[in-house]
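Apologies for my clumsy wording, but are you able to produce some protein sequence, whichever is easiest, and the tokens describing how it folds?
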Amino acid sequence: MAETLKDKACIVGIGETEYSKNSGRSEMRLALEAISSACEDAGISPKELDGIVRFSVDSNQVDEIARNFGIENLRFFPEVFFGGGAGCGIVQMAAMAVALGKANYVACFRALNERSGFRYGQMGGAMPMAGHFQYSIPFGLMAPGSMVAVMAQRHTYNYGTKTTDLGEVAVAFRKHANMNPKAMMYGRPLTLEDHANARMIAYPLRLFDYCQETDGAAALIVTSPERAKDLKQKPAYIMAAEQGTGSWIEMMTSYQRQNIADLEEYTRLAPHLWEEAGIGPEDIDCVQFYDAFTPLVIMQLESFGFCKLGEGGPYVRDGALQIDGRLPTNTSGGCLSEAYIHGLNQVVEAVRQVRGTSPVQVPDCKNVLVTAGSGIPTSALVLHSL
């Protein structure tokens, strides 16, 4: 087998701001708070950072972050594209740098005022009238939700997926959020009846099929296993990390594919991820799926081999994704009910699961799958404890 990243880097620090509808401060301030918190969690000073990896869409430049922290020797500072698809990719970049000796301590972060500032869910005026978008925007596909709704309809047509299956996803993740004091939906229960009675936004997606719009930031610190021995926290080892695309890739749509109800980005990525990790879906104790919309969770179950293509709907029934179900999923509440920080908060939750410190802890959790943005060039991780 070719050389891999397996267990050559680990996450040793995690940090978050509060998640809200109005942070009342700049995205730079949010980024600095989250990175500082992650450094404190790890037991290092921000001045010890010599690498920073960011989302290309983040408004904060790494040189400004370095100046604010007084970092004098920043050696590694790439960025990863495709919005939420970068959520695990930035961790992969950090792990590669650590494994190759290009940096000692690398911070990964995402900070955004997505509710009080620019709202990703209302993209009509921001979507470019160029490239493949010029063929869909005139017909009303002007926001991610409406684009995913087309995929969801095809999945329903092909495989008989029910709207109540979407409700099962939303209810499971809300249950977890109600056990997580940091979640935006903490203290706000949701039932299948509530889901069914919610207003329709883009058929078949109703209000609770959509993720949150959130102000906040999350960050983590990646270093080597050798350095981790002297730090404060139990390391979460990076067992595998991959990026992937699919055929006829178009941002959010990819309507020219043979089957738009198959998330090819994941279907093609998954075999490489499992090979590098040396395990399969049957060995996963907990999953943190990128859940911008409920049908994408059902489709990811199929892509990663938890069930066959078309069987995601039946799989989620009867509470299968809940903490006491057969596959505990999005235990912090996910994008749907904790916060939408382009999925980086779900990497943070995966680390908590491996440490055994989550408010919604999976017993004896060893292996956790994390995924990044759906319907776009994407990435995924497997974290574990040794």
